[in-house]
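STRUCTURE:
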């Protein structure tokens, strides 16, 4: 019986606090003062300084090997690249994060040439530091992140 009266008291207290805070929130809304108007929040400043396509190739080869060996238990490695060229730079509005889209052929250690599509992203690295690289090797997108045929990795 004592537990029931204690729970009823706490329920009444919670209801009373809810009504109090609800009544306080019905007050008049005021405009932000000058210190609340995006003080020191300048937003991102993208310069469009994105590395050339060739600069991303070592990163792609390393990440490809790590993914294949760790997640798919595969011995595949990229041994070289050929015909790497840019297909687009900032293909959308200038307000978007600058990206350089590239494509080329990757030679794998199984002797097959496969097309690779990738993009280099300004401030796209870990925690927004440095340039990030997103890539897809056609035919080896086993988790279907860029399916079909790596189409989502292109602009």
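SEQUENCE:
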């Amino acid at each position: 019986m004592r537990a029931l009266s204690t729970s009823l008291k706490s329920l009444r207290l919670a209801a009373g606090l809810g009504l109090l805070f609800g009544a306080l929130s019905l007050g008049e809304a005021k405009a932000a003062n000058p210190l609340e108007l995006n003080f020191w929040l300048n937003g991102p400043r993208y310069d469009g300084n994105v590395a050339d396509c060739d600069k991303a190739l070592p990163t792609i080869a390393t990440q490809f090997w790590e993914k294949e060996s760790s997640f798919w238990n595969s011995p595949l490695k990229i041994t070289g690249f050929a015909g790497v060229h840019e297909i687009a730079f900032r293909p959308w509005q200038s307000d978007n994060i600058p990206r350089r889209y590239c494509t080329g052929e990757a030679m794998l250690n199984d002797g097959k040439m496969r097309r690779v599509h990738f993009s280099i992203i300004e401030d796209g690295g870990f925690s927004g530091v440095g340039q990030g690289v997103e890539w897809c090797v056609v035919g080896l997108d086993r988790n279907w992140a860029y399916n079909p045929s790596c189409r989502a990795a292109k602009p």
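REMARK: The chain has two domains: 2-36, 53-153.
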